[in-house]
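F.,

This is the one I mentioned.
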């Protein structure tokens, strides 16, 4: 079999399974992106903040590339300002910017967790967490989604036999991006501390949307000092490229010196740092956006229930699990043809027989659009 034949076989199998994917430009009303607060569209301020206004004047002074890794010539004073501003927002010792959430997760986990360590991971964790743990080459314990009893059993067993000099870790998402449910962080932290393990929380889908200033679930619950690290993305609710890790200063030093994902990657352009400073100021002050987001989510779920449609999870990520791959793909196509940008999510992104329509509610959705989509989903 030639290489071309091998590729044809793979693609034909995916088509037969109803899992073939193709790139599709946005059309219709956005109910699939992670632009939860609407910053990428209609809820951007009509006049820029002084920081952003100044950056627009200075854009021509900045290179269009980061030009090199941050350890070479890719660092800029603006990134120091961004990272110190983020640290103050979270009440943390330090933060460190990365090019994307995927890169940050892989880099953090493969740097902090070593072979011989033990790590427990929720079975529904994001692919970037899964890949980061594979790179770490530690012993992995995969527990059922949100099953703290199974997690406790795993922690207790490992604590009895943990070799000297080896560490235990637990990794979870705060708000699961495909399930739409929140992790009981307080209970999980009690478990990790009882057995001497370290908790790492991915706040990709919760940053900007929870807490009085949008800092996320860990800070909303006053748990900052009890977690090892949190990961936050800019490309979702904040509407800006990049991501960051939040934690102790010593963790930042370790990442700068040991994380291959930072050392060997060209830095983000410095103009992006200006956008970060503007986004942080906007999201911290946007209690109204968070109120709109959560009210819209509650209203949409009420409308679905009124039509006899059940969505999993809670809050603004509303998965409708249809099960069959082809059925889900056809449902998404019908909705798109009617003007709704709703996408099908199929294995391997989600487990077998759980293909779904993942509805993403935003702060800038109108009640009329939410009610109309609920009506369309009834079909």
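My design for it:
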């Amino acid at each position: 079999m030639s290489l071309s034949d091998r590729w044809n076989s793979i693609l034909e199998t995916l088509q037969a399974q109803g899992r073939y994917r193709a790139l599709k430009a946005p059309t219709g009303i956005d109910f699939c992106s992670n632009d939860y607060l609407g910053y990428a569209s209609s809820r951007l301020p009509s006049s820029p903040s002084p920081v952003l206004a100044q950056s627009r004047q200075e854009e021509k002074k900045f290179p269009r590339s980061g030009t090199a890794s941050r350890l070479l010539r890719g660092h800029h004073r603006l990134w120091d300002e961004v990272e110190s501003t983020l640290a103050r927002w979270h009440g943390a010792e330090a933060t460190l910017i990365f090019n994307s959430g995927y890169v940050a997760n892989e880099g953090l986990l493969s740097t902090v967790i070593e072979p011989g360590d033990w790590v427990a991971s929720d079975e529904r964790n994001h692919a970037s967490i899964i890949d980061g743990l594979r790179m770490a080459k530690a012993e992995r314990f995969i527990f059922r989604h949100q099953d703290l009893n199974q997690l406790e059993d795993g922690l207790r067993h490992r604590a009895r036999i943990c070799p000297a000099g080896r560490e235990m870790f637990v990794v979870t998402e705060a708000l699961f991006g495909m399930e739409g449910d929140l992790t009981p962080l307080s209970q999980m932290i009690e478990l990790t501390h009882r057995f001497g393990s370290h908790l790492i929380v991915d706040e990709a889908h919760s940053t900007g949307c929870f807490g009085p200033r949008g800092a996320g679930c860990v800070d909303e619950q006053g748990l900052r000092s009890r977690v090892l690290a949190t990961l936050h993305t800019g490309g979702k609710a904040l509407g800006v490229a990049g991501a960051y890790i939040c934690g102790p200063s010593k963790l930042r030093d370790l990442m700068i010196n040991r994380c291959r994902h930072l050392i060997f990657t060209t830095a983000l352009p410095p103009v992006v740092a200006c956008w970060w400073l503007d986004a942080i100021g906007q999201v911290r002050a946007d209690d109204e956006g968070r109120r709109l987001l959560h009210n819209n989510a509650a209203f949409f779920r009420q409308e679905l229930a009124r039509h006899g449609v059940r969505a999993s999870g809670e809050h603004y990520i509303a998965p409708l699990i249809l099960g069959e791959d082809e059925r889900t793909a056809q449902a998404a196509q019908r909705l798109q043809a009617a003007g709704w940008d709703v996408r099908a999510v199929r294995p391997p992104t989600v487990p077998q027989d759980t293909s779904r329509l993942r509805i993403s509610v935003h702060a800038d959705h109108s009640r009329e659009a939410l009610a109309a989509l609920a009506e369309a989903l009834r079909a």
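The chain has a mean pLDDT of 94.

Talk soon.
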